[in-house]
Design goal:
Elements lengths: L8 H6 L3 E5 L4 H13 L4 E5 L5 H11 L4 E5 L4 H10 L3 E4 L4 H10 L2 E6 L2 H9 L4 E4 L7 H8 L7 E4 L8 H5 L7 E3 L5 H6 L2 H10 L7
Parallel strand pairs: 1-2, 1-8, 2-3, 4-5, 5-6, 6-7
Helix pairs in contact: 2-3, 2-10, 4-5
The structure holds 3-phosphoglyceric acid.
3-phosphoglyceric acid binds next to strand 8.
């Protein structure tokens, strides 16, 4: 089998305006959910390691949906990073930054979008070579105003704000020069998933086409 194509964190961020933050409770939902998002124009998929089936879901998507680029979210430890890479994740997203997670992702050949919420965390991630970061939890930690303040000292850092972002407030984030994309769970509502309403998920993905970088 050909080696999977590698994607840098910046490429993951630039592919679409939104990275969906996905929580899967049933392996049977993984493939139809991924196909529904791809049909709606979104192929970078962050499957969070928050449920017992998350790794199996990543594996299922990696095998059955080649048009999708599946990544692992909620990567908090070296073991998480290794397990995600073994399952076929092509990128990782973490809620915060530690050197251990940074190194584990490097060792696994997997790009990492590390989460930050303070200047000190940005400095630590940057010092270790990460300049594309997730701002989490974005709304709770200061929203667009925080990103504007960071654009001064951290002029060379690009962000993906995630946490409390919606179709309605996403344009305010995307208008900022230091924001490349946003992340959010609104594309994959738990009720749509439970009902197998894949058409709704495709529609929610299509609705984000109106969100463009300023
Ligand atoms: C998360 O990790 O839960 C994400 O930040 C998603 O947040 P949201 O549910 O507010 O989009």
């Amino acid at each position: 089998m050909a080696a999977a194509q590698k994607f840098s964190a910046l490429q993951v961020m630039q592919d679409a305006s939104v990275i969906p933050v996905i929580v899967l409770n049933d392996v049977a939902h993984a493939v139809p959910m991924a196909r529904a998002l791809v049909a709606g124009g979104i192929r970078m998929l962050e499957v969070t390691l928050r449920t017992p089936v998350a790794l199996a879901c990543i594996e299922a998507i990696a095998k059955a949906v080649p048009e999708a680029v599946v990544g692992a979210g909620t990567v908090r430890t070296k073991a998480d990073a290794q397990a995600a890479a073994n399952a076929g994740a092509l990128f990782a997203v973490s809620p915060g930054y530690t050197s251990a997670v940074g190194q584990a992702c490097r060792d696994a050949g997997m790009s990492l979008l590390p989460g930050v919420a303070t200047g000190g965390e940005i400095m630590m991630a940057q010092e270790e070579g990460f300049t594309e970061l997730k701002f989490f939890p974005a709304m709770q930690a200061g929203g667009p105003a925080m990103l504007k303040a960071w654009s001064g000292p951290f002029f060379d850092v690009k962000f993906c704000p995630t946490g409390g972002v919606t179709l309605q407030n996403a344009p305010e984030f995307l208008a900022l020069p230091n924001v490349v994309c946003v992340g959010g769970s609104w594309l994959v509502p738990a009720d749509a998933m439970a009902a197998g309403d894949w058409a709704r998920i495709t529609q929610l993905a299509q609705d984000t086409a109106s969100l463009k970088k300023a």
